[in-house]
Design brief:
The complex is a heterodimer of chains A (460) and B (194).
Chain A: E1 5-7, H1 17-21, E2 27-28, E3 36-37, H2 47-51, H3 58-61, H4 65-72, E4 86-88, H5 92-100, E5 105-110, H6 131-140, E6 145-146, H7 149-169, E7 176-177, H8 182-191, H9 205-220, E8 228-234, H10 239-243, E9 258-261, H11 262-271, H12 293-296, H13 303-317, E10 335-342, E11 345-353, H14 358-366, E12 374-378, H15 399-416, H16 426-436, H17 442-447
Parallel strand pairs in A: 5-6, 5-8, 7-12, 8-9, 11-12
Antiparallel strand pairs in A: 1-4, 2-3, 10-11
Chain B: E1 8-11, H1 21-31, E2 53-56, E3 61-64, H2 73-77, E4 83-86, E5 89-92, H3 102-106, E6 113-116, E7 118-119, E8 122-123, E9 134-137, H4 150-154, E10 160-163, H5 165-186, H6 188-192
Antiparallel strand pairs in B: 1-10, 2-3, 4-5, 6-9, 7-8
Amino acid sequence: MTTVIAIDDKICTGCQECTKVCPNLAIEGLPHQAQKVDETKCVMCGQCVQKCKSYVSVAEHGFGAYETVRKERGLPETVTEPLFAAHNVCHLDEVLRALADPNVETWVQSAPAVRVGIAEDFGASLGTLGAGKLAAALRRLGFNKVYDTNFAADVTIMEEGSELIHRVTNKGLLPMFTSCCPGWVRYLELNYPELRHHLSTCKSPQQMQGALMKTYGAKTQKTDPKKIYSVSIMPCTCKQYESGRPEMADSGQRDVDVVLTTRELAYLIKLKGIDFLSLPDEKFDLPMGDYTGAAEIFGVTGGVMEAALRTGYELITGQAIPAIDIKAVRGPDGFRTAAIQVGELTLKVGIVTGLKNVKPVLEDLKAGKLDLHFIEVMTCPEGCVTGGGQPKLVLDTDFQAAYEARAEATYQHDRELPVRKSHENPSVKKLYDSFLKKPLGEESHKLLHTTYCGDPKHHH
Amino acid sequence: MANDFGLFVTTDTTKCTGCRACEMACFQSHNAKRNKVGKTVGTITVPVTPKLYVTVIETASMPIQCKHCENSPCKAVCKQSAIVRFGHQVIVDETKCIGCKDCLVACPFGAITLLPYYDKGKPVKQVGSDENKVAASKCDLCIDDPDGPACVRVCPNEALSVSDVNEDRKKKNIAAAEALAVINAGAPERRLLP
């Protein structure tokens, strides 16, 4: 398995603060000695990367140490920020090679949480919404197509919502768990493999987008899929691992070629000398950059649930949901439940955020004490806006303010978008009309769904 | 309440884990204006130059920081008058520092070192040279910050506190007096005295 998260033993002070945030006890070592990541247990969420304050220091490691470590990690010269012991492996050099190659078509997608984080690394206030500037920056970096993971988030709702309705009406296995979060999927495979059929068969939005770009996208843009180099910008350190899973090659090749985190995209923008905050607001490319407010809220805990309810309500009852803002599923609590009346059906839902909170829920499920239809699980403290690849706070004491500002920017973006329900996305409708035909159809099953192998030790 | 001695930050070593969050907070607090260090790591364009130094030994860890000595040897040896007393605190004026290291030699705790000195995101140059300047860096008790030392506020384990040893001594005096008063009152030799 390729290393995703590592702790540099030359820099680690052995404070073990990271062990307090690791959701799967994957960090080993004695106090005051360097810690080590047990890669067979690590779910690659990157919360240790966010937590670590043990940096390469002039006083401790000498004047030349910073440059040595920067080079070891393959980071460009323009990176000036402190380098910490806990870090994720950076793939920026691969993206630079692809961007420089005239024979390669570079297509990019960005996750919802990226646009409420990226501006922070250019000095903007916490949670500044930068969707338009993000699209503009990616275009100036030379990506041939600036698409968006949010398009696939809308597709996810079509598929996952239909799957839930199918399971509920056909006495299928319940509760159904969301499968958007690769850290959560890996945690389940490692610790509760017997429960993995509770996972939705849907791929994550990143992987749906990846599979669609090299099939539907290649077809509509009349591009040879073999020439497409597919790049994801994610708030997540685990997405790199997800993109390399053997299941994730249904387009006939690897669906997503490489992943950069939000922070690494900021490195790239700075490397190219682009003044992010001065960029004009631009749109993502059509058709696969078209998105709704429902897709955008995937970035916050409870968002996938809310998006699914907005569409599911209408699919089941044939009527629009009375109140589109479903406050009952929002909020920062680690585990919360709600009963939502959908026509005749009382849909019982649960939301888990912060992977440490999932264990009691899974134990209840095993003990037959869990009476829910649908459960959203996100690994990071408050969903993807607090992901391991998001801009890292200098002070932990700013965490709460950052979460609240990023979540509020996400909901603000949702409120301001002209379309706020996934099934009303005109480009998604067109995708189904012209290519997929229907949710859970033959083509969807081939490209957008998977059966997780269950034994992550076999992954490369 | 006026204190007669310089205050300083002390560490409860049973709580300190050695995480260096105090160093990051110290650096941010002193460079937010001068070098535009913002809320996220990505806004940092200059080397991290704290004014306290986390030290890890086999059995413990703690930040070593200036005790604001009353008979400050660093101030005494500084020939540039770059180390001054401000109120009761001992403060370095980095603009005057020539990097002679006399204060490093003089400080018995190693609470001072020479670090790169940046202004407006650029290295400050040595006088009459293209080479980058270094300056003595040690705790100034966040003298410009009305909220007090940043390290104390940010410590995830609440291991740091501002210590007013004179006030603490008076409290200890009172506690000792109270204890001794009871003992003395009950002591037999006292009762036998005329």
